[in-house]
Amino acid sequence: MPGRDLNLLSLDGGGVRGLSSLYTLQRIMESIDPEDPPKPCDYFDMIGGTSTGGLIAIMLGRLRMTIDECIQAYIELSEEIFHKKRRIPVNAKGDLKERYDSKTLEIAIKKVIRSRDMDEDALLKDPQGTKVTVRIWEAARATSAASTFFDPIQIGENGQRFLDGGTVANNPVRQLWGEAVDMIDQQALTNDLNCLISIGTGEPSYKGFDDTVMGIVNTLSSIATETEETANSFHQEQSRLFDKRVCYRYNVPRGMGDIGLAETEQRAAIKSMTDAYLQSELIQSSMRSCVGVEPMYSLAIIDK
C-alpha cells in the first residue's frame, strides 16, 4: 500500500437508508468516468462500514459488486429480511426478543453470496498469514445484527458473541482510519492519502425530548447513533487533511434520518431526497474535487 495514492471509504449504518449511501457513491464513481464508472473495489484500497454500511462494504469489497448490482441486491435483501416482524415480542421466559428472524437474515445473505458464484461458506479473508477463519456470511450477519432488530451471532470455537456497532461507532470513520494506520504508519498514510470519503445515511430532524418510556428509548437510540458529531470531531482531529482537500463527508441533510431502519416502503423517498441533495452544484463540485476531476466549465459573474 505505501508509496502510492490511497483511497479509503467509510460507510455509516442506517438500515434501509443505506441505499442513500449507495446512490451517493454511485454519483462519485460516475464523476470519475461517466461512461464506464469503476467498481468501488477497483478504486478504494480499504472500505469499512458499520451495520448496514458493513454489509455494503462486504458486497462492494469482498463480493466485488458494481454499484448497480449492490443496489439491486440490497433492495432484494432488505425486502426479504424485513418482510415479517415477530408477532410475540417476548419469549417463554419473558425476555424481550429481537423484532426480526435472524435465520431469515442468514439465509438471505448466503443467497447473495451464491449469486456471485461463490461457495456460501467462503472465508472473509485469505487464510494465508492469519488465524482468523470468519466466513463471509458470518461477518455480514454480525455487522447486520442491530440491537432489538436481530439476535447477536456466535462465531469461532469459543462462541464469541458479535453484534453491530451502531450504538458505539455508527460512523466508523475513526475505526477505518485506525485500521489504515495499523497497516502503514501514520506519517506514510498522511503522505500517501489521495482521498478519504465518509458517507452517511441521512441526518435526523431536530426533535424535542419525549418523556414517555418509548419516547425516551427512541430518543436515546437516536442520540447513540448520531453520526455527525463523530464526523465533526474527526474533522477537527484531521483538520490538515480536510484543508488539503483529501477528506470528504457526504450526508443528506436533516429529515431522511427519521426514516426507520426497516421501513423498506420508504425507498422512493430515500431516492428522492438523495437525488435532491446530489443535484446541488456545491456537492457536485466537491465530488469532482474529491476524485481529482477538474470541472468541465467555469462560471464568471461580471459586474458591468
From TrEMBL:
<feature type="short sequence motif" description="GXGXXG">
    <location>
        <begin position="13"/>
        <end position="18"/>
    </location>
</feature>
<keyword id="KW-0378">Hydrolase</keyword>
<keyword id="KW-0443">Lipid metabolism</keyword>
<dbReference type="GO" id="GO:0016042">
    <property type="term" value="P:lipid catabolic process"/>
</dbReference>
<feature type="short sequence motif" description="GXSXG">
    <location>
        <begin position="49"/>
        <end position="53"/>
    </location>
</feature>
<dbReference type="GO" id="GO:0046486">
    <property type="term" value="P:glycerolipid metabolic process"/>
</dbReference>
<feature type="active site" description="Nucleophile">
    <location>
        <position position="51"/>
    </location>
</feature>
<feature type="short sequence motif" description="DGA/G">
    <location>
        <begin position="164"/>
        <end position="166"/>
    </location>
</feature>
<dbReference type="InterPro" id="IPR016035">
    <property type="entry name" value="Acyl_Trfase/lysoPLipase"/>
</dbReference>
<dbReference type="GO" id="GO:0047499">
    <property type="term" value="F:calcium-independent phospholipase A2 activity"/>
</dbReference>
<feature type="domain" description="PNPLA">
    <location>
        <begin position="9"/>
        <end position="177"/>
    </location>
</feature>
<dbReference type="GO" id="GO:0019369">
    <property type="term" value="P:arachidonate metabolic process"/>
</dbReference>
<dbReference type="Pfam" id="PF01734">
    <property type="entry name" value="Patatin"/>
</dbReference>
<protein>
    <submittedName>
        <fullName>Phospholipase, patatin family protein</fullName>
    </submittedName>
</protein>
<feature type="active site" description="Proton acceptor">
    <location>
        <position position="164"/>
    </location>
</feature>
<dbReference type="InterPro" id="IPR002641">
    <property type="entry name" value="PNPLA_dom"/>
</dbReference>
<dbReference type="GO" id="GO:0016020">
    <property type="term" value="C:membrane"/>
</dbReference>
<keyword id="KW-0442">Lipid degradation</keyword>
